[in-house]
Target: cinnamyl-alcohol dehydrogenase
Amino acid sequence: MTETTPNHTQTVEGWAAMDSNGKIAPFVFKRRENGEDDVTIKILYCGICHTDLHHVKDDWGITMYPIVPGHEITGVITKVGSNATNFKVGDRVGVGCLAATCLECEFCKASEENYCDKVQFTYNGIFWDGSITYGGYSKMLVADKRYVVHVPDSLPLDAAAPLLCAGITVFSPMKYYNMSQPGKKLGVVGLGGLGHVAIKFGKAFGLHVTVISTSPSKEKEAKERLGADDFILSTDPERMEQSGKRSLDYIIDTVAAKHSLGPILELLKVRGTLVLVGAPDKPLDLPSFPLFFGKRNVAGSMIGGMKETQEMMDFCGKHNITCDIELVKPDHINEALDRLARNDVRYRFVIDIDASSDH
Ligand code: NAP
Ligand code: ZN
Model:
């Protein structure tokens, strides 16, 4: 624990939830000294992922309070350990969900550390030294060099921050399931943080992108601002069936709450693939009929490995892909979380960590 870990001597200001009412308040805590494999990062921006909301409210029953959320972190390096030769002071960098992995298993060796059985996350994890990890809703982070990526100079650090989780989470399955063949048809279910980046990657890969959403108000923006080709309102089952049956090669489902998979599966062509990346607190029902009548596949995917995260960042640099964000001051994190819970976000809140308080 931080209090009893001897080299946790650096005092950091951050923001934490103390219990499952999920309210965020200022919180001062300790971080470790910068070790030889570490870099120290002055955090400038941190995205607010729906996973943060699940955690502060203990939706999944795994939260260790106090919790300092945040795994869409960008900032500038202020200190470099002697082994962290890939980085220098002043570098613009990002940290996503990973804080530690075993470094030895087949997944760690294959740059798929995210599937390491001993994976520990940037917050609510247990680091190698036994301390509980605290995330990016804070002013400074000490991170092991293996879990830090460079942010291309062309990308602004605020609008790039959500790429560290939302971005890689949709990029990774798109690559793995070969969703980068121009002309193929992708469906994106849920137009929030993950969903809006999925549209952008889809268009960059030359795909035809259909949004499947519960929010009629998002249709215009999805098409005009984000470049989606089509929009299906999932609350209208008749229209779902008429307009989309057997029309899509793949679907990425980002929905954060329990919902029905049958009508979504019907949208897939024969042999199409549905990848679930949303993390509802209750299991989803998987009906057999639309599965076997269409020889369809259902898969899951969790964030991505570090090599792929850097690849995604560089891809975004090259194609000028950033997130559509609403910047909030640290004083307004609770408001942002409330709005995220109400599905009132276009399309990612990002905390401006350095912004002065209102008081
Ligand atoms: P978000 O910004 O809140 O977007 C989720 C979208 O789902 C909403 O914008 C909404 O889109 C749709 N939705 C429909 N019904 C909903 C309901 N009852 N409650 C909430 N959303 C509903 O969330 P996000 O940050 O993109 O994250 C989405 C999910 O992915 C979360 O469960 C998160 O924990 C999970 N996640 C997983 C990974 C991974 O590695 N697999 C990584 C990051 C996040 P419409 O208005 O268009 O219907
Ligand atoms: Zn996330």
Summary: The mean pLDDT is 96.
